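Thread: quick sanity check before group meeting

JM: Hey all, I'm pulling together slides for Thursday and realized we never actually wrote out the predicted structure for the chain we discussed last week. Dropping the sequence here so it's in one place. If anyone has concerns about the input, flag it before I start.
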Amino acid sequence: MSSSQQISDFIFYYPQVLGETACDHIISHYNKDTFMRWKKSTFSNAYKNLGTSKVEMNEFWIAPQMFGYKTIQQGFETAVNDYVKEHTRIKIQEYTHFRINCYAKGGFMKEHIDNIHYSHGQKQGYPHLTSLIFLNDDYEGGEFVLCGEPLEKKKGSAVVFPSNFMYPHEVKQVTKGDRYSVMTWIL
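JM (edit): ok, ran it. Output follows.
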């Protein structure tokens, strides 16, 4: 990083990578058809599973053959491909499966970094980038805070940022409604 660059130069926000209707269909489908398969998320570090003290969220992993995968993939590729045009040293090898997150009232994720090696049965390797797509904005609280700054809450928007120690992030406690997002790590 040159002396003129800031941490924020490596955080890209995209106001609309998925349309509102696509977001609604994804939420509706996974609430209706897979509700019983959602799992309570746990928090891990390189050494052990730390349980649920740092996270209150339900998750569901979306594999390539599942509903909405191609639509979500197009959204991620729109953002990530633009990002790597600017940051040309990053070479995309692959994306992890997509994890849809549901934070109900009281849900949160404590500040952490995504410098993981193996998590939730995903492929092994340290991710270069983290990307999230926000599927709704009709909730209160639940702010996504990255490097100490809250991001705009907008349905269908995405963020891409490095998965290293310089980019701590968290989800503040949801105070009303359910907050949905979908994420992937780029190896």
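AS: nice. The mean pLDDT is 90. The first helix runs from residue 20 to 32.
JM: adding both to the slides.
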